[in-house]
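Pipeline run #58 for the internal structure catalog. This entry was flagged by the ingest filter as a single-chain record with no existing model, so it goes straight to prediction. Upstream metadata was stripped on purpose; only the residue string is passed forward. Reviewer on rotation: M.T. Logging verbosity set to normal.
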Amino acid sequence: MTKRERVEAAFLFNKPDKVPLQYHPSLRGYFEHGEALRELF
């Protein structure tokens, strides 16, 4: 399943093969969450 197909399936509630999710680091998030955000990555 391609990225595009995965997102479309999720919008249509058609059970994609995995959840279409991306993490984007930002300085603000690091400032607010610190060590917990670093552990996530």
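catalog note: The chain is about 55% helix and 0% strand.
catalog note: The mean pLDDT is 84.
status: ready for reviewer M.T.
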